[in-house]
Design brief:
The chain is of the alpha+beta class. The chain is 22% helix and 34% strand. Strand 1 and strand 2 form a beta hairpin. The chain is globular, with a radius of gyration of 17 Å.
C-alpha cells in the first residue's frame, strides 16, 4: 500500500522531535531552523533568578514559574509549528497551567516569557520574538547581555510586538498588569 509523501515541513518536524540532544543542551525549532544551544552559564542563571525573585515576591497577581518549558507556537509561512523553550515562563497561579502539561504545550495562559541572550543572541532578539508575538504571548522580556539592556515587548499583533521599552542595566523597567511592578535591574550590572 503506497504511503503519502511527507512534506518538507513534516520531515523537518519529525526529525526535530526525534533529536537526542546531549544532556543540558537545548534544541528548538525556530522559524524552520533547528537551533541547539549549550547549557547556560552562571551569569545567565543569575539573571533568571533575579527576575524570578522579584516577580514571585512583588507581583500583583500570584505567579507560577517554569524554567525551560517547551511551547508550541504558530509559525510563519510553510514552516512546521515552532517548538521554543524560553528560559522562563510566568502564568497566573490560579490557572495551574503547568500541571499535567505535555513537554510541548500551547502558550495559552502564559503571561510573560523571559529570555537571556546566550550563544545564539539573534534567535532571542528576532526569531523568538516573532514566535512569541504570533503565540500570542502578551509580554516578552529580553535580557540582552551583549547590549547590557533589558527590553519588554508588549501588544503582540501578527508577527511582532507593537510596543517595546528598552532600559540599560541599572534602570528599572515596568512590568504591566497582571504583574504591576517595577523590575529592578541594578543587580544585573
Amino acid at each position: 500500500m503506497p504511503h503519502e509523501a511527507l512534506s518538507q515541513a513534516e520531515v523537518l518536524l519529525e526529525g526535530f522531535l526525534a533529536l537526542d540532544t546531549p544532556e543540558g543542551f537545548r534544541a528548538e525549532l525556530i522559524e524552520g531552523e533547528i537551533v541547539v544551544t549549550p547549557p547556560p552559564d552562571g551569569d545567565h542563571e543569575d539573571y533568571i533568578g533575579l527576575i524570578l525573585e522579584q516577580v514571585i515576591t512583588r507581583s500583583g497577581t500570584k505567579m507560577q514559574f517554569s524554567g525551560n518549558k517547551g511551547l508550541k507556537l504558530r509559525s510563519g509561512g510553510g514552516c512546521p509549528k515552532n517548538h521554543v523553550i524560553p528560559d522562563g515562563t510566568f502564568a497566573p497561579t490560579e490557572l495551574r497551567l503547568y500541571r499535567g502539561a505535555d513537554p510541548w504545550m500551547p502558550c495559552e495562559g502564559v503571561a510573560l516569557v523571559v529570555e537571556v541572550t546566550s550563544s545564539k543572541p539573534t534567535a532571542d532578539r528576532t526569531g523568538k520574538r516573532h514566535c512569541y508575538a504570533r503565540g500570542p504571548v502578551p509580554l516578552y522580556l529580553l535580557v540582552d547581555r551583549e547590549e547590557s539592556s533589558v527590553t519588554l515587548f508588549s501588544d503582540p499583533r501578527g508577527d511582532d510586538y507593537r510596543q517595546h521599552c528598552t532600559v540599560p542595566f541599572g534602570k528599572a523597567i515596568r512590568l504591566p498588569e497582571p504583574f504591576g511592578i517595577e523590575l529592578q535591574t541594578g543587580a544585573f550590572i
